[in-house]
Amino acid sequence: MFPGGGMVAVRSSDNPDSLRGEGLDFVVMDEAAYIMPEAWIEAIRPALSDRLGRALFISTPRGRNWFWDIHRKGGIEPDWSSFTYPTSANPFMPAGEIEAARAELPEIIFRQEYLAEFVDSEGAVFRRVHDAARLEPREPQPGQYVGGVDVAASVDYTVITVLDAQTKEMVAIDRFNRVDYPVLEDRIAACYAKWGLTGMVIEANSIGQGVIDHLQNRGMNIQPFTTTNATKHAIIQSLQSAFEHGQIKIIDDPVLVGELLSFESKKTNSGNFTYSAPEGQHDDCVMSLALAWYAVDRAQPVILFGA
Fold first, then answer.
1. CA distance 163 to 147
2. SS (HEC) of 44-70
3. What is the pLDDT of residues 47-69, one digit of tens each?
4. Of 111, 191, 195, 272, which alpha carbon lies 20 to 30 A from 47's?
5. pTM value?
């Protein structure tokens, strides 16, 4: 509160209804792209009308959401102005750090976070897939192998993917379904032995825990892996980056390539993204590869399993 009248307040927008009720002269919406549009449309905009107030929207882009719609008003509609500043405009940001991020991050993420571009990341997730799909399956050679296995129930497919941890090349894929669990476990164990795998990480959700228990009882080095929205997002983004930066080579398998090309992201009502195959299609090969790449990326001699 100011001695001469007036006030400055900081409010959370998690509950837009909490912003109702006060006439406002000026509003700053920080990280506006991450705020629900209802906060502006239903609460803040009407409150500005009482005093003919103004608003300043500050944010990193987040796809082409409501903040993008507002940004486009600048230069088109009266009383609106828009400005864009990439990270390089910050005089305190070392140029080397920006270039390091460019080399490590997926292109979409870099363009959004560092170039301040409104990138529509809906739809296809993986690019440059055909550039990476140049290999044929091969037999084991001396080396260190890791892999990923997407363990499935009766409808989906169980997929085993093996990668060379040193060359980051895919060397084998095995896809099957509609087998009893003892047969499924025997097939995984056979791959484990054939490639001399040093460990496995199995997704512990759903049926995975039973597979973990049985394979551990057979003397195999098994580590549980819990799949959540956050962990799935992380491994998919890592694989996405690997394709974009040419770090991975895969077998030119038509099912695998088809799944990678059709795999898509969808934005939820909260503004987050989910990853999956289109309705009625499969993503077992994608998840198996993503988990195998996770093992390589972390330089851990393990096989990862996920659902």
1. 5
2. HHHHHHCCCCEEEEECCCCCCCHHHHH
3. 999 899 999 999 998 777 788 88
4. 272
5. 0.63
